[in-house]
Design goal:
The protein has about 400 residues and is an alpha/beta fold. The chain has 2 domains: about 1-140; about 145-390, Purple Acid Phosphatase, chain A, domain 2. The protein has helices at about 1-5, 10-30, 40-65, 75-105, 115-140, 180-195, 215-220, 235-240, 245-250, 310-315, and strands at about 145-155, 165-170, 200, 230, 255, 260-265, 270-275, 300-305, 320-325, 335, 340, 350-355, 360-365, 380-390. The strands form 3 sheets. The chain has a 6-stranded mixed sheet with strand order 1-14-2-3-4-5. It has a 6-stranded mixed sheet with strand order 6-7-8-9-13-12, covered by helices on one side. The protein has a two-stranded antiparallel ribbon with strand order 10-11. The protein is elongated. The termini are far apart. About 40% of the residues are buried. The model is unreliable at about 35-40 (pLDDT under 50).
């Protein structure tokens, strides 16, 4: 245990645990010693028991996470540990908010009629159960609610032989303890059923170096498309130090990852020029040298895991950019017509089709999850894109 505490790689988990415990302690203090004086003995013990249970769950999650530095634990325990920590932290934040709302906005007073007290007690109970129910729906139902999303991409002057071209996209697979091989196989089968002309895989095959990369590559080798399977790499290939491995072993299995290179594909008299780049970090200039991959007489498509490159890609001469990375926000809540999700604080390109003049970027929600093993308002998807002439 001491070794895990001293391991620098566990520092983010420890900070998250400490923050959740501090916030829960503050909320418990407000409940127990609010302006109305000490609470009843029953309520006090219930709050203390819940706070203690929360600490135990968080520490149990950290012990599972300890698998990363202890060879006696199965490797997948680390993934489950991190998932447990993030899930409990997510539930805790909204549960604390629900407790405080019920404390100040729905007070049960002695002067209330029996029916009024019963209504308030029922409302408070429903409010307190909501965070766990909603999170459970995201973890056990919507996380695996895979669907096919179709999108027509309209371009003026598109070559006649590319009109109606079908492109199927898989991205952000994150094969890990929270996405099984069977679920990935279902996504591959769904992609093959589209009978697409081109198949694309746009990064983040796994989440960490401990995840089953070979299994992921083997399943992706079942992808079928008339002109072949192509892709680009994401930030998690960098974190796992797996970029070269994916490129070499992917090529042996029949899918080609375009790393700062382009692949021209002939369809009749027209050429679809697929260009791919490695993950483009936001702290560096985007697409340095990528303009050299633009083919003047072809329809140029850029594969980039990070959608933020879109304005630069449009200026360089790419009418279409295909990306992922955002997971569509992964957890999206609409309040007062405002779409609230973490991704929108980092990028304006969260989910779907965005246009700038005659250029467009399509951002897929992807298949897997990262951090919190749940999806809310952003279900997983396989994408079928059609090029259309206007």
């Amino acid at each position: 245990m001491l070794r895990a505490l001293l391991d620098f790689r566990n520092l983010p988990d420890l900070i998250l645990i400490a923050a959740v415990i501090l916030v829960q302690g503050a909320a418990a203090g407000l409940l127990l010693w609010g302006s109305g004086g000490p609470r009843s003995v029953r309520v006090r013990w219930a709050v203390i028991a819940c706070a203690a249970l929360s600490c135990l769950v968080l520490m149990f999650g950290f012990l599972l996470r300890f698998a990363r530095v202890n060879r006696h634990f199965p490797p997948w325990w680390a993934g489950w540990g991190r998932g447990l920590i993030f899930t409990w932290a997510f539930v805790s934040v909204f549960l604390i908010a629900a407790i405080l709302i019920s404390r100040w906005w729905l007070p049960v007073r002695s002067g209330h009629s029996p029916s009024r007290r019963a209504f308030l007690h029922t409302t408070r109970a429903a409010l307190l159960c909501t965070p766990a129910i909603v999170t459970g729906y995201g973890v056990f139902i919507q996380r695996i609610e895979l669907s096919l999303r179709e999108q027509d991409l309209m371009f003026p002057g598109l070559p006649q032989d590319l009109d109606g071209l079908r492109i199927v996209q898989l991205t952000d697979i994150h094969l890990s303890p929270f996405l099984s091989e069977r679920e990935l196989a279902r996504a591959v089968d769904m992609a093959n059923e589209t009978r697409a002309h081109v198949a694309l895989v746009t990064g983040d095959l796994i989440s960490t170096a401990r995840d089953p990369l070979d299994t992921c590559l083997r399943q992706l080798s079942r992808l079928r498309a008339d002109a072949g399977v192509f892709g680009c790499l994401g930030n998690h290939e960098i974190y796992a130090n797996a970029e070269d491995y994916v490129e070499k072993h992917g090529a042996r299995l029949g899918h080609h990852y375009l790393r700062q290179r382009a692949e021209p594909l002939k369809f009749g008299q027209a050429t679809l020029n697929l260009a791919g780049v490695d993950y483009q970090p936001s702290r560096k200039p985007y697409l340095v040298g990528a303009e050299r991959m633009v083919a003047p007489e072809a329809f140029n498509v850029l594969l980039s895991h990070n959608p933020d490159v879109f304005p630069v890609a449009a200026r360089q001469g790419y009418p279409l950019t295909i990306a992922g990375h955002t997971h569509g926000g992964q957890v999206r809540i609409e309040i007062l017509r405002q779409d609230l999700n973490i991704a929108r604080f980092f990028t304006p390109y969260v989910d779907g089709l965005y246009r700038r003049g005659h250029a467009a970027v399509f951002v897929s929600r992807g298949i897997g999850t990262i951090g919190l093993p749940a999806r809310l308002g952003a279900p997983p998807e396989v994408n079928l894109l059609r090029l259309c002439r206007t």
